[in-house]
UniProtKB/TrEMBL annotation:
Monomer. This is Ribosomal RNA large subunit methyltransferase M. GO terms for biological process: methylation; rRNA processing. Keywords: Cytoplasm, Methyltransferase, rRNA processing, S-adenosyl-L-methionine, Transferase. InterPro entries: RlmM_FDX, RlmM_THUMP-like, RNA_MeTrfase_FtsJ_dom, rRNA_MeTrfase_M, SAM-dependent_MTases_sf. It comes from Pseudoxanthomonas helianthi. Residues 1-67 form the RlmM ferredoxin-like domain. One of its GO terms (cellular component) is cytoplasm. The keyword Cytoplasm applies. HAMAP family: 23SrRNA_methyltr_M (MF_01551). Residues 181-273 form the Ribosomal RNA methyltransferase FtsJ domain. Catalyzes the 2'-O-methylation at nucleotide C2498 in 23S rRNA.
Length: 346
């Protein structure tokens, strides 16, 4: 089997399958998606060598992880899983690291113990056969061995420049005791998943200015102050006292959906609960009017046709912004029925 193996949030397999199929078709690539509800992953089968290039990980909305398929092994003997894996890897080159994983789904989570123990057994066998370097080498692709059942395994390749750098595609973030709310993790993850290291260094400098629309109780404002940005937090509700105590926050009791800044800002962030099309159109105004240079915001999705709504909202945002923008969107691990969008000038 050739194609892609992509992880997603459990329950969003149809959305990921629709996204992969539509984007591949628009690029003139033949293929088909295989998805099972609540499996936590989607396979897109295609023998077109262009597939990975036209579906980069950072541009996929519903994919937590994107891997190139090597093989699918079904009905393997639990007494000897290593031999068929070595046979499937023959002639496929060397790998700089090994990740043994399972999808993030209710059905697959019990496989975590097997994944850990099997990795310890497989690693020396791979090195003995020359498939795996003695020490981790980030210049080479990673080998992913993905258990979906005890006798059903996918083998896949992950390229460092075009895949999530975290196991299962999930960054392990800890909610600090002084975080005003769990929503702080959304913005922290967005900064990791939607911006690369160079962008974080250039675009998040101490002294920059930002607006947090619908800020209460202050989770996103708190994240921005940890990067030493000066924040105007717009919400009729209260902010936590220790957020205000940073000296970097100006709290305006106003409607964040209609407020506009008196002068241009470096950043605008928004996690308001509102219809996604209204949010997309309103926040596009911020770019069209030059009120901000960069933005991160959430779009709350409907229960049905979520890929259709995502595509419509992103197209609407790009059209109404009225200027060339780089736009990236992801359904993050800490998101639920929503996606998070990053926008910056091209």
């Amino acid at each position: 089997m050739t194609g892609l193996l992509c992880y997603c949030r459990q329950g969003f397999e149809p959305e990921l399958a629709a996204e992969l199929g539509e984007r591949a078709a628009l690029a003139g690539i033949a293929g088909y998606a295989k998805a099972t509800r609540n499996a936590g992953y989607v396979v897109f089968a295609s023998d077109d060598a262009r597939l990975s290039a036209v579906l980069p990980w950072r541009e996929l909305v519903f994919a937590r992880q994107k891997l190139a398929l090597i093989a699918e092994l079904r009905g393997i003997d639990p007494k000897d899983r290593i031999t068929p894996i070595l046979a499937a890897l023959a002639g496929g080159g060397r790998y700089g690291d090994l990740w043994v994983e399972h999808p993030d789904s209710d059905e697959a989570k019990p496989l975590a113990g097997l994944a850990r123990s099997f990795g310890n057994a497989l690693r020396p066998a791979l090195r003995k056969q020359g498939f795996l370097t003695d020490k981790e080498d980030p210049r080479l692709p990673r080998l992913h061995v993905v258990f979906v059942q005890g006798d059903h395994v996918f083998l896949a390749r992950g390229e460092a420049r075009d895949s999530a750098p975290w196991a299962l595609g999930i960054p392990r973030l800890k909610l600090l005791n002084d975080a005003p709310s769990r929503s702080a993790l959304k913005l922290e993850e967005a900064l990791l998943a939607l911006l690369d290291a160079d962008e974080r260094g250039r675009l998040l400098k101490p002294g920059m200015t930002a607006a947090d629309l619908g800020a209460a109780p202050g989770g996103w404002t708190w994240v921005l102050t940890r990067h030493h940005l000066r924040v105007t937090s717009v919400d009729n509700g209260p902010l936590r006292e220790h957020v205000m105590a940073t000296g970097l926050v100006d709290h305006l009791r106003a409607d964040g959906f209609h407020w506009q800044p008196p002068r241009p800002l470096d950043w605008m962030v928004c996690d308001m609960v509102e219809q996604p099309r209204r949010v997309a159109e309103r926040l596009a105004t911020w770019f069209r009017e030059g009120w901000c240079r960069h933005a991160i915001f959430n779009l709350k999705l409907p229960m049905k046709k979520r890929w259709d709504e995502t595509r419509l909202c992103l197209d609407l945002f790009a059209e109404k912004a009225g200027k060339p923008l780089t736009v990236r969107a992801k359904q993050l691990y800490h998101d639920r029925e929503e996606i998070t969008v990053f926008a910056t000038p091209e």
